[in-house]
Amino acid sequence: MELLVAEHVEKNYSGYRALDDVSVTASEGRILGLLGPNGAGKTTLIRIINRITAPDKGTVLFCGEPLAQKHVSQIGYLPEERGLYKKMKVGEQAMYLARLKGLTKGDAERRLRQWFERFEIMGWWNKKVEELSKGMQQKVQFIVTVLHEPKLLIFDEPFSGFDPINANLLKQEILRLKAEGATVLFSTHNMASVEEICDDITLVNKSRVVLSGNVREIRESYRKNIFDIRCRKHGEALTFSPEMEIVSQTADGDTTDLRVRVGDTTSNELLRQLIGQADVLSFQEVLPSMSDIFIEAVTANNQQC
Question: What would the pLDDT profile of 108-119 be if each residue is shown by its tens digit?
Fold first, then answer.
């Protein structure tokens, strides 16, 4: 089921079009990566979904209804710009923000203590926010974002400022929340994270959607018919038919690593030709990374503009 649907959204600021006929769909229990270069329009779309601003044209539906103020309580938003009151104690501030989200004092404290213990920051409850590192402050904001168990979670560059261990901790929590039924809108420049956690993506460039769909299907659609092979050669040199191109070849002892582009022929034919010349140790197709696809799609769109 589609939790959030934005259709033909347009937004203008003093003659500048920030969003131009943008349509985005976030399905229940899935993670949607919202991608694009700086200034592409991602933040404007997020602000519209949070009702911080309104579209000039188009519609936004939440659970099949026109997006309204009543839906804001069902959205959790972690912006890229962090904002905690430096002089307040961590627990005091977390309680304050939790109460703003409609939790009773008892529920807020119970849930906060569970999350603080999970993130191993219970010892910071009575510390002032200014005593916390950037990453520690971000943990607190993440907790407050998800505390009221909203249907839609919006994370804008959530791993910024985290070391690899804590970034992985946050990643696992996002996947756990998804498994429990949350829908996630994930805005980032980190393409490795997209491949690891996103089910679907929407790529925005120069205010328009240029690519949208399932991550696996998109990667397959950008395939270049390139294969990585590890083998032990029978003779001195490997030769293939003209439609096959050896992109790279390196040797390590009696083992050779090859990257071959097959052109119009099939992988089965490549393997057939290879078996006659070498013992094949591994053979796999190289699918383009999301980083490669991002660059290719944005570059092609810029050339068309």
Answer: 999 999 999 999
CA nearest neighbour of 268 among 256, 280, 251: 280
Identify whether 39 is part of a domain: yes
What DSSP letter does each residue of 93-107 carry, written as one string? Answer: HHHHHHHHTT--HHH
Q: Low-confidence residues of the chain, pLDDT below 70?
A: 82, 305
Q: How many structural domains comprise the chain?
A: 2
What is the value of pTM for the model shown?
0.87
Q: Is residue 305 part of a domain?
A: no
Q: Which residues, 6+ apart, have CB-to-CB distance to 240 below 8 Å?
A: 246, 260, 270, 273, 274
- Give 268: exposed, middle or buried? Use CB within 10 Å, 0-12, 13-18, 19+: exposed
Q: Are strands 255-261 and 226-233 parallel, antiparallel or unpaired?
A: antiparallel
Structural domain including 22 reads 2-220
Q: Residue type for 61, please?
A: L
Check whether residue 261 and residue 279 sit in a common domain: yes
End-to-end CA gap in the chain: 35
Q: What is the pLDDT of residue 193?
A: 86
198, 266 in Cβ contact below 8 A? no
CB distance 224 to 208 below 8 Å:
no
44 and 193, same domain (yes or no): yes
DSSP per-residue string spanning 203-272: EEETTEEEEEEEHHHHHHHT---EEEEEEEESSS-----TT-EEEEEEEETTEEEEEEE-TTS-HHHHHH
Domain-located, residue 44: yes
At 40, which CATH number? 3.40.50.300
Q: For 300, how many CA atoms within 13 A lie in the half-sphere containing its CB?
A: 11
